[in-house]
Design a protein that fits this description.
With 456 residues, the protein is mainly β. It has three helices and 31 strands. It folds into three domains: 170 residues, Immunoglobulin-like, CATH 2.60.40.420; 131 residues, Immunoglobulin-like (Sandwich); 115 residues, Cupredoxins -  blue copper proteins (Immunoglobulin-like, Sandwich). The chain binds copper (II) ion.
Length: 456
């Protein structure tokens, strides 16, 4: 969540100070001069360039290095991939092969983890069985992306610090059967705040910091009434929760492709590491995408919502009825009853000692699942805060929350566990390897809340 070193003062005018001229050219439709006063024009992250002419293979180099960049009108000294924050937007189709070379220009080790992608364990970017890519060295990751995901990439070594300093980018794997929207947005949501004392990360419980979308504070997208708008929303904050609402917002996809059917929740909760695909149908009225203050400590919400994105029609007219997505309705899988693994999450803010089954990574008991036998993991949260649970290597199905199955089949790789909640999840155990299972509040992971699940 925090601690980008905010070096300068506010520049006073929110428009051009935020804009990255180099990315503005890549955005589809939005010209800088169309933004209302005080708000920047929306811009997607700059697209990654495919360096391989072969169809079905996407190849690029990601150079991680210190970089000064502008966030919400302020100068930030952080890290970036290829000199941009967020990093290059990688967009491929299901079935494509991704070949990405990490050039580590940092002063210490790093890796790339492909969050949400089911990759071979050697490509997963964790320093568990393979060490990090040392400073000045390179490593090439290559794997097939078989399923549609709204995924992202980030280091998994020195993780809390490197992600916080700006090392992340989006990996979109799309299904060619999906409809094409008039405006397709990628919203990378992050929080920024004052640098805490040396070596210390403050444990904010409430949302008090500034949210940005692609480094822009509350940008505005100009549209025409009747157009379709689809947004991939990614929460890359170390600690901050998004609790989203917008007039007429439909949730059409989750982290792992389309939902079985669209939903219209009152609030769309996206914890750190979570993603979703949402659709808007602007008519004459302006739409504001709001995030409401959210407490991971179970208290009631404090304060007013803030807008993280405006969708402003420049014409009057009727909204369209929504795109024609190839939804396939699916009921939740019945709970098979047997429990293969139990994870109990405990810890507290005071000590910063976050534990799974009383153990702190890397001194953990490795639970083992036989390959090809779907298994139930029961995750209980006995701590006083919520935790977004993330499993590497395999997506899983949420069978129940406190004994209640979801309304429809729910496939995820990151799921929030409320205070005192018990979740039962079904893991396919179809990817051999040692897989990290951890809280994606990165200070919690750093504090020990991480374990290893083995499939063999
Ligand atoms: Cu946690």
């Amino acid at each position: 969540m925090i601690w980008l070193l905010l070096a300068c003062t506010h520049s006073g005018d929110g428009v051009d100070s935020v804009g990255t001229e180099e990315t503005a050219a890549d955005t589809e439709e939005t010209a800088v001069d169309t933004a209302p006063p005080g708000r920047p024009a929306f811009a997607n992250p700059a697209l990654a360039e495919d360096q391989n002419p072969e169809p079905g293979v996407f190849e690029l180099t990601l150079s991680a290095a210190p970089h000064d960049f502008q966030v919400a009108g302020q100068q930030v000294s952080g890290y970036a991939y290829n000199g941009q924050n967020p990093g290059p937007l990688i967009q491929v189709e299901a079935g494509d092969i991704l070949t990405a070379t990490l050039q580590n220009g940092l002063e210490n080790g790093s890796t790339i983890h492909w969050h949400g992608a089911s990759v071979p364990w050697e490509m997963d970017g964790v320093p568990w069985m393979i060490g990090p890519v040392q400073a000045g060295e390179s490593k090439t990751y290559t794997f097939q992306l078989s399923e549609p995901i709204t995924g992202w990439y980030h280091p998994h070594f020195d993780t809390e610090r490197q992600v916080d300093l700006g090392l992340y980018g989006v990996l979109l794997v799309k299904d060619p059967a999906w409809p094409v929207a008039d405006h397709e947005l990628v919203l990378v949501a992050d929080t920024w705040g004052e640098a805490p004392e040396e070596g210390h990360h403050s444990g904010f419980v409430f949302q008090e910091n500034t949210w940005t979308i692609n480094g822009l504070e509350s940008p505005v997208l100009k549209v025409e009434a009747g157009q379709s708008v689809v947004a991939h929303v990614l929460n890359v904050s170390n600690m901050g929760y998004l609790s989203l609402s917008a007039e007429g917002m439909r949730v059409v996809g989750g982290e792992q492709g389309l939902l079985p059917a669209p939903t219209t929740p009152e609030r769309l909760l996206l914890g750190p590491g979570d993603r979703a695909i949402v659709e808007f149908s602007p008519g004459t009225q302006e739409i504001e995408l709001l995030t409401h203050p959210y407490s991971v400590a179970g208290a009631s919400e404090l304060g007013d919502p803030v807008s993280i994105l405006g969708i402003h029609p420049s014409t009057s007219g009727a909204a369209n009825a929504g795109l024609d997505w190839p939804f396939e309705s699916a009921a939740p899988t019945p709970d098979p009853g047997k429990t293969a693994v139990r994870y109990v999450f405990q810890g507290d803010e005071q000590t910063g000692q976050w534990r799974i089954n009383g153990e702190a990574f890397p001194d953990v008991t490795i639970e083992t699942l036989p390959e090809g036998v779907p298994a139930v993991i029961e995750v209980r949260n006995l701590s006083a805060t919520e935790h977004p649970f993330h499993l590497h290597g395999m997506s899983f199905e949420v069978l129940s929350v406190d004994g209640v199955p979801p309304d429809q089949r729910t496939i995820q790789d990151t799921v929030n566990i409320g205070i005192r909640q018990t979740l039962r999840i079904l893991v396919p155990a179809d990817n051999v390897g040692d897989w990290m299972a951890h809280c994606h509040i990165l200070p919690h992971a750093e504090g020990g809340m991480m374990t290893v699940l083995r499939v063999e």
